[in-house]
Amino acid sequence: MSSTSSTGTPPPSPEGGGVAASDDGRPGTIDAVPVRHPGRWVAIVLLAVVAAMIVSSFVTNARWDWPFAFQVMNFNPILEGLLKGTIIATVGSMIIGISLGVVVGIMRLSSNPVLRVVGLAYTWFFRGVPRLVLVFLFGAGIGYLYPRFDIGPFPFSQQLAGWLGLSSDLTILTLNVNEISSTLIWGIIAMGLSEAAYMAEIARAGILSVDDGQREAAAALGMGPSLSMRRVVLPQAMRVIIPPTGNETIAMVKDTSLLAYLPLGTELFFQAQAVSNRTYKIMPSLMAATMWYLVITTVLMIGQYYLERHFGRGYGATREQSTAHTKKNRILGKGA
Fold it and tell me: Which of 47, 108, 123, 254 could form a disulfide with 119 if both were Cys (CB 3.0 to 4.6 A apart)?
């Protein structure tokens, strides 16, 4: 006797992707047909063709001169520019930017209206002025406007001494700016002050992402505002602060090329331009600098990944944790 339903209709056949009935009448294994995506294969083919054309252009065009580009990467002026103009400038600028940015960000969230206004004015000015203009202002303007600093006991002390006819102008300390500073130092200061304005907004967003209950719990434990900020709020805010901070660091690596317009001789892009002007091989020389920038940004991206994974512990399952959990469930399911 053939198997039919109560309405006289036979069960669906598994050949069409239906459900095969078992001997006891319960539904069996679902024979699902995967959805086909022909558009994906078309896109893959197009991307492969474009990539092959780009590689062919790089390999077959002799004007790229890759052997000379790799040779330029090992020139001593290029390596010196990489160390002093790129790495040192990036590290120095980010130290100033992160340290001052956290302070300004906390000022923006302060209950003191004076601190809020000062923090807002700082971010308004340094976010509004282009970084190249700031580099020029500090690199060329500070030494011109203030060749030396005469530090007195109070503001307008020198003018007051002259008005009163005193024999001394009340100067306590004199600093010769041109002797104690260099173009690299002023460039680092300019970019660090500019970066602090952006880091202030990043720090403010990270602090606001922490629930107010964390501050209340810290206060219940007897922690003061500064201690709870250091020990409770900021460690939790790092999960939000780290990704944009990594982006800002990578952007700072590229912005160090602005120091070439001061001009700063010990700078990677400046030295690459000097090599291209001497050898008349413009693209190979610039590609040497480009490859060094790519190496540094790759290292920073890897470091950012591990920092994000470290500070993201306890905030949801990562991809590795989800995969391990799925495998564990499959094993337990098979065992059962």
Answer: 108
Share of the chain above pLDDT 90, in %: 44
pLDDT at residue 1 above 50? no
- Give the pLDDT confidence score for residue 315 in this predicted structure: 66
- What is the C-alpha separation between 163 and 102, in angstroms, rounded? 43
For helices 282-311 and 268-279, the axis angle rounded to 10 degrees is 160
- For residue 21, the SS3 value is strand
The overall pTM is greater than 0.85? no
> Residue for token digits 């054309």?
53
Looking at residue 29, the DSSP 8-state letter turns out to be E
3 state SS of 209: coil
CA separation, residue 152 to residues 159, 162, 168, 177, 274 (Å):
10, 13, 11, 16, 45
The three-class DSSP label of residue 176 is strand
Helix axes of 183-208 and 113-128: crossing angle, nearest 10 degrees: 130
- Rounded-to-10 torsion of CA 87, 92, 95, 101: -110
Dihedral sign of CA atoms 104, 106, 109, 115 in order: negative
DSSP 16: G
Q: pLDDT band for position 143 (50/70/90)?
A: confident
**Torsion sign across C-alpha atoms 91, 97, 103, 106:** negative
Tokens of 103: 């302070």
Instruction: Please compute the mean of the pLDDT values over residues 253-276 and round it to a whole number.
Output: 88
Residue 310: predicted pLDDT: 84
For 21, 134, 263, 333, the CA distances from 259, given in Å and listed in that order, are: 75, 11, 6, 61
What pLDDT was estimated at residue 224?
86
Contact 259, 253 (CB under 8 A): no
H helix intervals, 147-266: 157-164, 177-180, 183-208, 212-220, 225-228, 234-255
pLDDT given for residue 334 in this prediction: 46
Give residues with Cβ within 8 angstroms of 133, minimum separation 6.
none
pLDDT at 3: 45
